[in-house]
Amino acid sequence: MKVIHVSAECYPAAKVGGLADVVGALPKYQTNLGYEAAVVMPFYDNKYAKTAKYKTDFRCKVDLAKNKYKAKVYRVEKSFEELGYHLYQVQIEGLLDRENVYGYEDDTERFIAFQKVVLDWILQFAQAPKIIHCHDHHTGLIPFMLTQCVKYQSMRSVPTIFTIHNAQYQGEFSFEKLSYLPEYDLEQSGILEWDYAINPMAAAIKACWRYTTVSPNYMNELPYAATGLDWLFDTEREKSVGILNGIDADVWNPSTDKMISKNFNVKTVEAGKKANKQVICEKFDLDPEKPLVAFIGRLVYQKGADIMAGIFDRALDANDINGLVLGSGDPHAEFLLNELKEKYPGRYNTFIGYDEELSHLIYAGADFLIMPSRFEPCGLNQLYALRYGTIPVVRTTGGLKDTVKDIGEKGGFGIRHEHVSVDDVALAITRANKLYNTTAEFKRIRKEIMKIDNSWENSATEYIELYNLISQ
Fold this sequence. Notes:
Blueprint: E1 3-6, H1 18-32, E2 37-42, H2 47-51, E3 54-64, E4 67-76, H3 79-83, E5 86-92, H4 107-123, E6 131-135, H5 141-148, E7 160-164, E8 193-194, E9 197-198, H6 200-207, E10 210-213, H7 216-221, H8 230-235, E11 240-242, H9 269-284, E12 292-296, H10 308-318, E13 322-327, H11 331-343, E14 348-352, H12 356-365, E15 368-371, H13 381-387, E16 391-395, H14 398-403, E17 415-417, H15 422-437, H16 439-450, H17 457-470
């Protein structure tokens, strides 16, 4: 193995957000470019695990203070043939044998144990990997353990890349749990510490060879982004590289997508979009003759969930449009969004929860996708929307700024707004409605955005160039 990706999520084995999509696609594209890649992640007792076939690759015991747990590393059989890379999953009895990815009181223990087993597994390789690529705070202690812990000193020369998918979530925990970590020189505890706690993300930034962000603009924003690590990002700026995420063009392909009602391409986009829109509107009691404005995502503060109902209320009141929300999260936001169904029957609906197949259908049938994010490290939804001829309406932040150019600019193809407020987003939707009614221009843009190449090939090449740079 030349590069091992370590992550808490990987599609299709487990998905909570965009992290899974990235880790599920990047290794495949790297393998296609001739650079052998593999993924190791936790084992979850979910739908995927019940159908996958496993072969035990490694067994060990992992200690957390006085507690000992039995662990196995499984190789998913035929993963290379089906996914394009080798997939491994770590099962730890009593910790990593539950259904959900996150949300347990002992998540700290679960992911510390996971990282220790991963390093124990790699330690017994006949040949060390060329790169260990860690993703988000759940794997952030690996660069520290590799450079500081006595047990892994033979692997200190293995370069580590740490990719920040979302700097708001850092995994901090009390120094009372310091004994969970393998032996190291306690004088080096400052590498772990941030704001009087152990902070895995801060530790990774300090200890890794390079850290990357999932868009160039997000990299530039982090020193000023009020994540609590602003000073650290500014200090370690020379180690940072901004590489824009891509999408898996095989999975997200309207001409072959089995999850949508009618397949289409650039030449058949009008008929294809119309057919998929018809199915959505029938399902949600909407008018297929009106422009369909959709939101897909987690209903959390980052995504503007607290004002989402106000946005649709204002936009529906001011424009003859349809609105549709697919997502879940904050209960109060869910309640307010559901209430709107009574105020705008036949023009607005919600699906509280997440449905992968439905999301594909909405991308295929919607006319516009809104993303009023307060911050967005990269964003994948706008890239999926472009691929399916759905025009994104986004806030000017992070990767949204990198990937969506406003129609008011030369060569523009999307709609951007500056502020996360009901007025600003509703005004952007009004601009979208105006574009929809300018039929010829709307159809031209819809065809043009489908031609934009946001696949992983370019980004995968950038990562390989970075690997080669630090491993020479």
